[in-house]
Every structure is written in structure tokens, then in C-alpha cells.
Design goal:
The chain is of the alpha+beta class and about 200 residues long. The chain has 2 domains: about 120 residues, Aspartate Aminotransferase, domain 1, CATH 3.90.1150.200; about 60 residues, no CATH class. It is about 40% helix and about 15% strand. It has a 6-stranded antiparallel sheet with strand order 1-2-3-4-6-5. Helix 4 packs across helix 5 and helix 6 runs antiparallel to helix 7. The longest helix has 16 residues. It is elongated, with a radius of gyration of 19 Å. The protein starts with a helix and ends in a 10-residue tail after the last helix. This is DUF1801 domain-containing protein. It comes from Maribacter cobaltidurans. It holds the Pfam family OmdA. InterPro entries: YdeI_bac (IPR016786), YdhG-like (IPR014922).
């Protein structure tokens, strides 16, 4: 099947997210990116370089940003596409059409295009996973003032501990670190891992 036909099928077939992915497509096409079809998903390129892709699944739909780790992510909406495996790709998930804000989505896509135009690349060397000795200062301070959090954290598996450490370390701004810390403390106290709900 030709790429044009595959695109037609993707956007026209009956699916609970048929209308929302159509909206995302309309937003993307306004940017001038070239539409093609790769890995079973509509993919949008600039000078034959992948910039974004649109995906739909059973419970969500969204946009993949191939160099998402380089985006400023001012609204804190991006997630690692495959935690522990992908380095640069980030995913913006939506669960219903009303969550699509064209202005916000366009802002992210425009930034992704600018990064590609400038030829900015990411370091493909995988970072060494942090160990407990790499615990960020803001988390270590919490352990000093709240022994319950410290004990709960130490009761987690090493893999879950590393996920939380990485989550804090990856935050670029101090206010984001504080926001992420407040989010994860209840999860740590419940003995949950950062990504348990996706497992």
C-alpha cells in the first residue's frame, strides 16, 4: 500500500480518537511540514528529517517529538517515550479531544521545527543511571526533615529509586524540581514507582 493510502486509512478508519487525531493533523499541516508515513504512523519531516509523528492507541493519542528532550517544555507536558530506552524522543499524550489547545500545540511544534532548522543535535550517549549516591540535594534535604519519606524511599526497589532520582535530576529549573518533588512524595509514601500506572 502506498504511503498516501496508508495515511488515508489512518485518518479515516473508525476509531475512538478519529476526530482528535484529525484535529492534530490539521494543526501540524499548517506548519508546512512534509507529511509521510513511517512505522505505521503519520510522520512529519523537514528536509527529510523526522520532526514529529501522530499516534493513536487504545486509551490515548498524541504527538511524538523526535528531539523532544531538546524542547523547553514550558508547560511540563512531555514524557519520555520509553523510559530507560529512548534518549531524545518525548511524547505528549491526550486522553480526550477537549485537551487539545491549538495555540499550545502549535507552540511546541514551532519550537521543534526551529530546533531542526538550526541543526541542533542531542548527545546520543546514554547517561549512566544514577545511584543512591547521586540523590539530588532537594530530595536529600527532604529525607533529613522527613524520616518517613526516607524510609519509604529506601524500601523501594533500586530501579524505582533510580526513576525518582532521574525525574528530579532531569528538571531544568528549581521551581520544576520543587513541583516534581511535591508530586512524588505521596507516591513514595505509598510505595509506588513513578511509572507504575503504565506498567
Amino acid at each position: 500500500m502506498e504511503k498516501f493510502e496508508k495515511l488515508k486509512v489512518f485518518f479515516s478508519e473508525e476509531h475512538k480518537f478519529k476526530n482528535p487525531v484529525g484535529r492534530l493533523r490539521d494543526i501540524v499541516l499548517k506548519t508546512g511540514l512534509h507529511e509521510t508515513f513511517k512505522w505505521n504512523f503519520p510522520t512529519y519531516t523537514l528536509n527529510k528529517k523526522n520532526v514529529i509523528a501522530i499516534g493513536k492507541f487504545k486509551n490515548h493519542f498524541g504527538i511524538w517529538f523526535f528531539k523532544g528532550s531538546l524542547l523547553s517544555d514550558s508547560d511540563q507536558v512531555l514524557e519520555n517515550a520509553q523510559e530507560g530506552k529512548t534518549i531524545a524522543m518525548r511524547h505528549w499524550k491526550f486522553y480526550k479531544e477537549s485537551e487539545i489547545d491549538e495555540k499550545r500545540v502549535s507552540k511546541y511544534i514551532t519550537e521543534a521545527i526551529e530546533i531542526q532548522k538550526k541543526g541542533i543535535e542531542f548527545n546520543t550517549t546514554k547517561k549512566k543511571k544514577p545511584t543512591k549516591s547521586d540523590i539530588p540535594a532537594i530530595l536529600a534535604k527532604t529525607f533529613q526533615t522527613n524520616l518517613g519519606v526516607k524510609q519509604a524511599f529506601e524500601g523501594l526497589t533500586p530501579y524505582k529509586q533510580e526513576e525518582y532520582i532521574q525525574y528530579i535530576i532531569e528538571a531544568k529549573q528549581e521551581k520544576t524540581k520543587i513541583s516534581r518533588l511535591s508530586k512524588i512524595i505521596p507516591m513514595i509514601l505509598d510505595g509506588k514507582g513513578l511509572h507504575d500506572k503504565y506498567r
